[in-house]
Design brief:
The complex is a heterodimer of chains A (376) and B (454). Chain A contains 13 helices and 5 strands. Chain A is mainly α. Chain A has one domain (47-362): ABC transporter involved in vitamin B12 uptake, BtuC. In chain A, the strands form 2 sheets. A 3-stranded antiparallel sheet of chain A has the order 3-2-4. In chain A, strands 1-5 form a two-stranded antiparallel sheet. With 454 residues, chain B is mainly α. In chain B, helix 4 (95-114) crosses helix 5 (119-144). The chains are: A mainly alpha (376), B mainly alpha (454).
Chain lengths: 376, 454
């Protein structure tokens, strides 16, 4: 095989033969970790089962947003073997685009402004969809620009050079947004294009009255949760269709499998790569808008942690695998929600990175990843 | 007037840079008296500039001294990073985290000591020594077993270190009451809080901080270094973030109320003088130079060039990576200790990982694998960005700190795109050159193939 630049350590196979020797110590350590985590969750869940269900719902909400970002990570990594660090910041740009569209330009009200006869329901749906589509388009355009300016010249350079460049782009996006004339470094309240509707479950599903406390010991959820869930499942299906059923999808898989040969077969690899960046960024933009609506406050650094966690999710699921990224993101969401609730909020990042390290050590190819066939 | 001051600063900083280069040159001379003369001159010139007063006018004011000490600590941190990234090829973003660990560790020791609590020094000192012995002991035992999975080895090391740390806490708690009366209180310092013992405690605190950072890096690096280049980068980034999270919550999650969490630790004694800073910088340079030009150092270098080839030549790749990572982190810890006692105030914001790009840019700019380049770039970078640019942007009235963070990534991007080999490439000057005898021997033995381009 030609030289595919893989991290040599990541695919290091233990020397066969005495492989199992003393492996039990490490396994026992991991089992102990897992057991203590399970005990912690079980003991708390025993006391407050409602809280556990609520945590799972919160975790799902987080997980589906991570899934939207992780899809872009996994596709880009699958095709150019680059950890596209700026992906999380594209997500942030998506949130900001919708913020400006809503607060400055009232874009979500255009159907009613142009056609006053339109009833409120369809108007809100069409207006919000326009805002989301605009964010997705802008994010895709941004990603294409980033790819052209920063990554393309380094395609043949060592991978670390590209990674450093990606980190540079990421910080540039964050701190350029922080400048006084662009934006301020403060958190600001986000204005949603549509109203949040909450429900709680207590002897049947009941609608929450705005401005009123939800009753204690009731599971609550909102229309945003349902929209996020629907959107990410839809994205997953669309993406699978694109990758499996369309011409560009075949090209993507070919380039990801073997770029030089794909080139010889007449595939324009650069175009395919650009397309991959664009489509991943569009989904990140969608995620950004939904995240901002769900958590209702944004600032320019908001993309860092979700981006990193989505990357961890992609690795967990098996980087390069689209369903893997989805499943990994859901697991990450649960891990984070449970950590926040049962251990302590600041430790959520530590848990995410611990999961990353353990996954890479125990199963470097992730849950869905295939073991490397070509690597000797 | 401001502009005049600024020009003066530039001239002074150019002079300091020249002094450093002169020091490197003089150290490279063969005769011992020349080396000694070089050290004495380099130290003396700067010390004179700091102490001399002409009435109201001080040659090296507070601002210049601040830049000088920042540059010295930055040079130490960047030298360590150059060993990890430049010489060994492991892209690490954790260096800033180890710097922070060292700073907080050293600051806690001296802070407690000057306030009459010997537990900091006792626990950290005993802990680092015992943990070091434990690690070495486990290493001997593990070394006999071939093919032990890294996770199992990590578990053994972790158990040993935790046991050593627990023992240190117990022992320190037992020994502390007998020492406490000698220390006195903050208002009435005792016998062991005189000027000389304090300097000794400062020295110990910095060394222990370095060793502590090195031990943490050993435990962290053992599993993580097997991950491969870009996963390693992400994991180290995560480490830096977790370290900062712990700093912000040092009074809630960690049991250190004197660190005051996100509000920042105040009241650290200002022990760092130019003599100490110079001493630690010199020590770092000498350690680095002697390591890099030893056979171990060549093993470290060969791992960067080609891991597979290095393994074929019989080099223990995992050990080489770990060695570079641990020594590099040790220097970061030393730098942190020196920094904490110069600045007297530690806030977790200083150790935000965005600021961790400083040493990375310095190393890339100076040249990956060039110690001279790193030293020059450290001084130049601090003088330029912290001194010149900060004052200039402040004059223009914009939000200077944010602009700097916009300029960092652009600098990094331009560097990666335009001059990836950096200012010095892999060239060295004077003392930092490979010793000539070794080079001739190596030239005879080595194949004529040129070094692979990075």
């Amino acid at each position: 095989m030609h030289a595919v630049n893989r991290p040599s350590g990541a695919v290091k196979l233990p020397s066969s033969g005495n492989r199992a020797r003393l492996a039990w110590i490490g396994r026992a350590f991991l089992a102990l970790l897992a057991a203590s985590a399970a005990y912690l969750i079980a003991s708390k869940a025993w006391n407050e089962p409602i809280l556990l269900v609520q945590n799972v719902i919160d975790g799902l909400k987080l997980g589906f947003v991570y899934a939207l970002i992780a899809l872009g990570y996994t596709m880009v990594y699958g095709i150019v073997k680059l950890i596209n660090f700026a992906h999380g910041d594209v997500f942030m740009v998506g949130a900001f685009t919708s913020y400006f569209a809503v607060t400055k330009f009232n874009l979500h009200k255009w159907p009613q402004a142009l056609f006053p006869g339109v009833p409120a329901g369809p108007s809100v749906v069409i207006g919000s969809a326009t805002v989301i589509l605009l964010s997705m388009l802008l994010c895709a355009a941004l990603a294409v620009v980033i790819e052209r300016v920063a990554y393309k010249p380094l395609r043949e350079a060592p991978r670390i050079a590209a990674l450093i460049t990606a980190i540079g782009v990421s910080f540039f996006l964050e701190y350029f947004g922080n400048l006084q004339f662009v934006y301020t470094p403060r958190f600001i309240p986000y204005k949603s294009p549509f109203d949040t509707v909450g429900w709680y479950i207590q002897g049947g599903i009941r609608r929450m009255v705005p401005g009123q406390e939800s009753p204690a010991n009731a599971i609550t959820f909102s229309n945003i949760f349902l929209i996020i869930m629907a959107a990410s499942v839809l994205v997953l299906v669309v993406l699978q269709l694109i990758v499996r059923r369309t011409k560009i999808g075949v090209a993507m898989r070919a380039v990801s499998f073997d770029k030089p040969t794909a080139r010889l077969m007449g595939i324009d690899a650069d175009r395919v790569i650009t397309f991959t960046f664009a489509i991943g960024a569009a989904f990140a933009g969608l995620g950004g808008v939904l995240y901002a609506i769900a958590y209702s406050s944004i600032n320019t650094l908001l993309g860092i942690m979700p981006g990193l966690k989505a990357f961890v999710a992609a690795v967990l699921g098996g980087i390069g695998s689209i369903p893997g990224a989805f499943v990994g993101a859901l697991i990450m969401g649960q891990a984070e929600a449970l950590t926040m609730s049962y251990i302590s909020t600041p430790m959520r990042d530590a848990v995410a990175f611990t999961i990353l390290i353990i996954v890479l050590l125990v199963r470097p190819t992730g849950i869905f990843g295939e073991p490397d066939k070509e690597k000797a | 007037m401001e502009i005049l001051n600024l020009l003066g600063t530039i001239v002074k900083m150019g002079a300091v840079l020249a002094v450093m280069l002169g020091l490197i040159h003089m150290l490279g001379r063969k005769a011992v008296w020349r080396k000694a003369l070089g050290i004495a001159l380099a130290f003396g010139v700067v010390q004179l500039a700091i102490t001399l007063h002409f009435g109201d006018f001080q040659l090296f004011g507070d601002f210049d001294q601040g830049l000088l000490f920042q540059a010295v600590t930055m040079a130490m941190v960047a030298l360590g990073l150059n060993l990890i990234y430049g010489f060994n090829g492991q892209f690490s973003l954790a260096q800033w985290g180890f710097y922070g660990i060292g700073a907080y560790c050293a600051a806690d020791i001296t802070f407690r000591w000057t306030n009459g609590d010997p537990r900091g020094l006792l626990v950290v000192g005993l802990g680092t020594i015992l943990a070091g012995l434990a690690i070495l002991g486990v290493r001997r035992a593990v070394g006999r077993i071939r093919g032990i999975p890294v996770l199992s080895a990590f578990t053994l090391y972790l158990l040993a270190t935790v046991a050593a740390a627990a023992a240190a806490v117990v022992l320190g708690g037992l020994l502390a009451p007998s020492l406490a009366p000698l220390l006195g209180t903050a208002s009435a310092p005792g016998l062991l809080n005189g000027a000389l013992p304090r300097q000794a405690v400062f020295f110990l605190s910095v060394v222990f901080a370095g060793v502590f950072a090195a031990e943490v890096s050993f435990l962290f690096g053992l599993p993580v270094l097997t991950l491969g280049s870009d996963y390693f980068g992400i994991a180290t980034l995560g480490f830096a973030m977790v370290v900062k999270t712990l700093m912000v919550n040092s009074d809630t999650i960690l049991p250190f109320p004197e660190m005051k969490g996100g509000r920042g630790m105040i009241g650290i004694p200002h022990f760092t003088t130019w003599a100490w800073a110079f001493f630690f910088l010199l020590a770092s340079i000498v350690i680095m130079r002697n390591l890099v030009h030893s056979s171990t150092g060549r093993a470290v270098l060969s791992v960067r060039e080609d891991e597979t080839a290095a393994r074929v030549m019989g080099i223990n790749v995992a050990d080489s990576k770990l060695l570079a990572f641990v020594v590099g982190s040790f220097m970061a810890g030393l730098g942190g200790g020196v920094y904490a006692h110069y600045i007297g105030f530690l806030s977790p914001g200083t150790f935000d990982f965005i600021a961790g790009f400083n040493p990375l840019i310095i190393v890339v700019f100076g040249g990956l694998g060039s110690m001279t380049g790193t030293v020059v770039a450290s001084f130049g970078w601090i003088f330029f960005l912290e001194g010149f640019l900060r004052v200039l942007l402040g004059q223009l009235g914009t939000d200077a700190p944010t602009w700097r963070f916009v300029l960092y990534p652009i600098t990094l991007l331009l560097l990666m795109l335009l001059k990836p080999e950096g200012l010095f490439g892999t060239k060295e000057l004077g003392f930092l050159k490979a010793p000539r005898i070794v080079r001739r021997a190596a030239a005879e033995a080595a194949a004529p193939a040129g070094r692979k381009e990075e």
